[in-house]
Design goal:
The protein has 520 residues and is of the alpha/beta class. It is built from 16 helices and 15 strands.
Length: 520
């Protein structure tokens, strides 16, 4: 109980000092979690920095998040809370950081509970190392104005969000371990389930959506037992998931070492062993000491711990053991943009990574990708196909188990960005939220009428899907469902159209590979 007091005091202090602009007015939402004072402006109400769990500090560091008691008094919710600790990032340089960061933000067009609007729950990307629910690209006003309640969240990042050590595992025997950031997401969904009705949202119509590692999170939440019933639709944007070989907590898998082995190595650098004092010493580390540790060398994806996540993602999707929700997933046309930092890596090293991570043989990669071509081109194709292939496979598996399933390929670039080969990773996010002034990945060109049309089209598809599990609607180009074994991609751009033969031979290669692994 006492762990919540500091944060309540912080919110009260902000309430006393906050000033509303002349064009805004205060508004209050009475919810089971407490009474929250937000801001209403332009027919939208915003509530920011609402805590959804106790501060994961001290004895609660590296544990599943703990629920808060009902907050007493009128809690200010007009200012964002601190972002979760992460390395310095120019995008978030002015945002205060704190380990006490588990908060969410709600934007709603209607506070009347009887209206029960669809809820869209956004999970930010950032390699599970950086990011926040208050990013300018995902400011939710334009999207909420389409008639949905939008929730954005913070969740634990880096080693604070995913870590394992044998001493911690012994203490947390039979409890969820390692995936603390993903556990935070589930806790935030529970808060939504219990409270969103007070903000005009329907707890029985929740869509989770996210890009990059936010999309990875979406896919894993579909398989996490504790998330069952907390959402009803899922949108995975630009998600390259390691579906054949997930990381495991206590044993190596494919080319990935056990997470506990990594934790032991990191602890040794601080002269912490595997003994009775290890847990207390780990939890006594300052945030700065944790951030100073080397970033993990292996996959940063979620980890199979036997409790929170119980099997590889491919097994969950192919067997139909995912939650029975409708699914929409897709990619940007230049996911290879992410390989730029890898260009100095020798191709044999990169190829070895593909072999160990995805289970290919070097001979099969040579046959499909002709490795003697231009190194940057080959690396780009292989890396991008880790997005294309996994997205197609998961959509097909969802369709095979009789759930609505839709695929998209986002390839709209404004004329001012004609010097790049396609839409870079994350390039669709400003269009999904309507924040075209923040298209920094393509130089933030001046907005045109066509730009806005593409954004409105994209938002309409997303909102329609959130309402009914089907993106189609009046005056929108028809978007067909993925059929069993089908490859119907909606190409979203200035001239949206359906295409079924995108990267046909390369996708044959990936789908055949996944089927071979399934048969083993």
């Amino acid at each position: 109980m006492s762990l919540a007091i500091g944060r309540i005091g912080y919110f009260a202090a902000v309430l006393a000092s906050s000033l509303l602009s002349s064009s805004a007015m205060a508004v209050t939402a009475e919810a089971p979690a407490g009474s929250f004072r937000g801001v209403q402006q332009d027919h939208l109400s915003s509530f920011r920095g609402i805590p959804y769990a106790q501060a994961p500090t001290g004895e609660l560091r590296w544990r599943e998040p703990m629920a808060l008691p009902r907050l007493e008094g009128l809690i200010n919710a007009s200012a964002y809370g601190p972002i979760c600790p992460q390395p310095n990032n120019p995008d978030f340089a002015d945002y205060p950081q704190s380990e006490d960061c588990l908060s969410l933000n709600v934007t709603t067009p209607d506070l009347k509970p009887e209206h029960s609007l669809p809820v869209m729950f956004w999970i930010h990307g950032g390699s599970f190392q950086k990011g926040t629910g208050r990013w300018v690209k995902t400011e939710a006003s334009r999207l909420a104005a389409k008639g949905v309640v939008v929730v954005t969240i913070n969740y634990r990042l880096g080693l604070l969000g995913r870590f394992a050590h044998p001493a911690l595992s012994a203490e947390l025997h039979n409890q969820p371990r390692a995936n603390y950031g993903l556990m935070d997401q589930v806790m935030a969904l529970r808060w939504v389930h219990d409270n969103i009705h007070s903000f005009g949202g329907n707890p029985e119509n929740v869509t989770i959506f996210g890009y990059s590692t936010g999309g990875v999170s979406v896919n894993y939440l579909m398989a996490a037992p504790s998330a069952r019933g907390l959402f009803h639709r899922a949108i995975a944007q630009s998600s390259a998931v390691l579906i054949p070989y997930s990381r495991h907590i206590s044993q190596a898998s494919g080319g990935l070492s056990a997470l506990e082995a990594e934790g032991l190595e990191l602890a040794r650098q601080l002269e912490i062993g595997n003994n009775a004092e290890a847990v207390a010493r780990l939890r006594s580390l300052s945030v700065a000491e944790v951030l100073a540790l080397p970033r993990p060398r292996n996959s940063t994806n979620p980890v199979i711990d036997g409790t929170f996540l119980v099997e590889d993602l491919a097994a969950s999707f192919s067997s139909g053991r995912t939650h029975p929700v409708d699914y929409l997933a897709g990619v940007d046309s230049w996911e290879a943009s992410l390989t730029k930092p890898l260009q100095r890596m020798p191709l044999p090293v990169f190829t070895g990574m593909m072999v160990s991570t995805y289970g290919f043989t070097e001979a099969s990669l040579q046959k499909q990708y002709s490795l003697d071509r231009d190194t940057s081109l080959v690396m780009g194709e292989m890396f991008a196909d880790s997005f294309h292939g996994s997205t197609l496979y998961l959509a097909q598996q969802t369709a095979a188990h009789k759930r609505n399933s839709f695929l998209y390929w986002f390839d709209y670039l404004p004329p001012a960005a004609d010097d790049i080969p396609g839409v870079p990773h994350g390039g669709e996010v400003p269009y999904v939220f309507g924040n075209l002034q923040h298209r920094d990945r393509i130089g933030s060109p001046p907005e045109t009428a066509v730009d806005r049309e593409v954004s409105d089209l994209t938002m309409s598809y997303w909102v329609n899907f959130a309402r009914s599990g089907d993106p189609n609607g009046e005056d929108l180009p028809a978007w067909p469902e993925v059929t069993v074994g089908g490859r119907q991609w909606m190409r979203i751009g200035a001239q949206p159209r359906v295409q079924s033969n995108l990267l046909s031979a390369r996708m044959d290669f990936w789908l055949d590979h996944y089927e071979q692994l399934k048969a083993q």
